[in-house]
């Protein structure tokens, strides 16, 4: 198993055996360990001492279902803390089957006027991967929907692509790392935290992988792995949320629009209300029905990456049947829709397309546009104005740069006090005042406000793994802590987080996840062991953040959420600071 | 002695006896105590829970020389921490002689479309101050050089004015609180840390004072006070730096340009060098000689405020003899000059005038423009372009808003890594890599990078109170700590910090300062006591910052200063973190 280190200061690389101490790491566990061990916590996120780490999950590249995820880690230009963001893509599988545990990008060219790409291939003679550099300057300053076909044309259809867009090129704190989906779209993003700008600051425009001849992922105990794989598959195929033609496969993640609106927890018009009168018009059901009407047939969703059996990725089609964008996720739909007071699916999908085209995180982009609306730059509900602001971000005008710098910074620049961020990262599509547990996750996770770090929505709203009152703060710190620790392991396994619904409700599913990992690694982890492993990852991340100056005082929701009641429940965020402090205090 | 509390939520006020526990506080000691006691550390600086506190010094309003200073305090929108900035102005004296220990502005109007002013007068019948509100909306969106004459016309020539300009109105983190000088110019600023925006967020455009009939400052021990006053006066009149026609009276603070340039510590072109080839053209000597040539006579400097015997405030005159601006301080001259690669005094003075006109801190403005130059917005040395950028700030264009948000935020938005700030505040005109002690002050003071918080330049460069090697880090943490503690008392006394040269070199001067304070208050403080008092103020400030999330990790200079050697000495900032931590660790 290998570590690839690419040094952009002098465009050299090394392929080294993966360090023994890291041998059981993967995904988030790997990226956070490398960042914590190698990046000075006070280094500038866009300077030469930050590193960008890619790591496939433990079971990525195997036959484990829904496991083609890659974690990307580094010090975040958005939060100033440690960051892991992950994406589902063939790129993850391709890196894994080349037996690469981590690909670490280091250094920075002094001359920032040229950009470079690397192509990673399997060197059969040497029995290890090799790296070639190429000039990629010509691919800058372009819409990624135009760039990807050029890259495929030049390097062949069999490659997978990682890269950044205009946002990363311009050092925006809102810039993701883009990966190809199964239809070669630039649509799968390790979106949050500005890691596109870290890649951009290193002027590494693309990492291409051609896995031809790669040996595949070694599996230590094939029988155990196979047993785990079967349990996981059964759970996913059985659960209402993840089964074929189930909630996610039919309506995509946007199935949550109506559910969260009903719960009064769909943040609307920059988090000034918990219900949006236009929710039904942008909900997952509306996407399904609208596509049916426009295409003349039912369209179920597709897989974003090889081997996914949940297949939740949707597309939205224009009146003439032409695809506008894929994927209109719940978060994107909400951020660019309800949170901006916009209820027009065609315009929302166009905004998703523009985020993909320019390399922006849709959540951060929508939250920032909503703050700009609050500042009076354009009115709430002005979808054409919002589309224009996205173009300004792509072009790098002064207003575009303000918005590209993320919600917290844009709020400062525009003089807005009502800014829904934690640790500089915009809150996603669940209102802390209406769902207290997720507010605790937002406040305390090492990542900045992030629903995926501890998705307590499962029990608080969806009735998965029990049912808890979303409005009550009672017991929610412990709930968030448990979810955060388990999630840190799921994010290390290589599985998509959406397996959580099935494995939390179906005990054999959880066993399956652990058996898959034990099968691949030859370990003997118990269910408790993997949660403890997750907790150990959180502790590493936390220590990094504290050394970077991000401590307890940063584990808070913004002041306005503690003083302004949110309709329709008219509640404030009433979780005491002591409960917030207990999340890591008692980890 | 009184506290005036003005509530901008409902435009009411209270005049209350000053709390017994605060009776010996003044200036910074008062503002920092009120902020630490009353402002929630995690409140939004521009929200209703921040407070803006004005407090004259302990001896302000008496016959003590050079003591008409007022401290302004609050939570800073620039640093996110506690802030005190002070200015010399008749406003300080007028508040003091009304026996007001503190004027506290609280709350915030929900309707931000209208602005208000208050006029504070002495109510002889009631034997205490009174406050009247007036609509001040008409004064917004104007150059302060146009506004001040309108205000004097409406309210009479005898008033003193405190207020904010376009920068504060637009919520800029770079916005000062403006006060009148002795010639009714809008030129005296509590400039640093964005307190103008705090005032702006409360929509309190002006605080006017008419001290007619005010009883004056009570002096507990007149003989002791008089003894102290005489010692202080003698020291100031004797010391080469502060005496009439001495360095400050002749050349103003800009006398430091040549000195710092010679020392290799004049930050040039956004802190990329320590020497500026155009230094002699913008130095205090050049101002003196230029004025002489253009006016046909020697022009010595004037007092910024009543009772100042140092009189260091200069003016710069155009070729036709007309005044361009007052005052071209060393810091302004450097920030808008050398640091931007600009060597044209007429253009620098015009930029100073624009900062005064729009309500911007000159240091932060110059540092931000230099970062914009680094980003390629305009080239280094482009003085006309820089003037245009100041107009953009005044007008509130998107680029103007970026720059008005201060150096650190502008650096983020413009994607620049070479950003010379600590705790979000731009470094002033002394290079930490060339003068290690001042770097320790920048790094550790509660204020964000601030030379006035612990001016170790005195021994490191000027040979005041001994002579220390500026390039050596040895012993400098202790030096900075001692200077910071003493300074916190000087900033409480009401004296201008420039008394420091005389009182550090002349022991009777220091005694004089202490005796003046004891004379006014009836206290029996020793020299050691006042330093301990200063230390206790620092500890309060530090505790506030820690609760606001600003701890040890924020006590660092930017990464580039530890990795990039600075010409001509080619040194990095080599003070170990342990030394930085010892400043407050051993306080």
Structure characterization notes:
The structure is a homodimer of 587-residue chains. Chain A is of the alpha+beta class. Chain A has 3 domains: 209 residues, Aldehyde Ferredoxin Oxidoreductase,  A, domain 1 (4-Layer Sandwich), CATH 3.60.9; 181 residues, Aldehyde Ferredoxin Oxidoreductase Protein, subunit A, domain 2, CATH 1.10.569.10; 134 residues, Orthogonal Bundle (Aldehyde Ferredoxin Oxidoreductase Protein, subunit A, domain 3). The first copy, chain A, is built from 24 helices and 16 strands. In chain A, the strands form 4 sheets. The first copy, chain A, has a 6-stranded mixed sheet, sandwiched between helices. A 6-stranded mixed sheet of chain A has the order 8-7-12-9-10-11. A two-stranded antiparallel ribbon of chain A has the order 13-14. In chain A, a hairpin with a 5-residue loop joins strand 13 and strand 14. The two termini of chain A are 32 Å apart. The mean pLDDT of chain A is 98. At the A-B interface, helix 15 and helix 16 of A face helix 15, helix 16 and helix 23 of B.
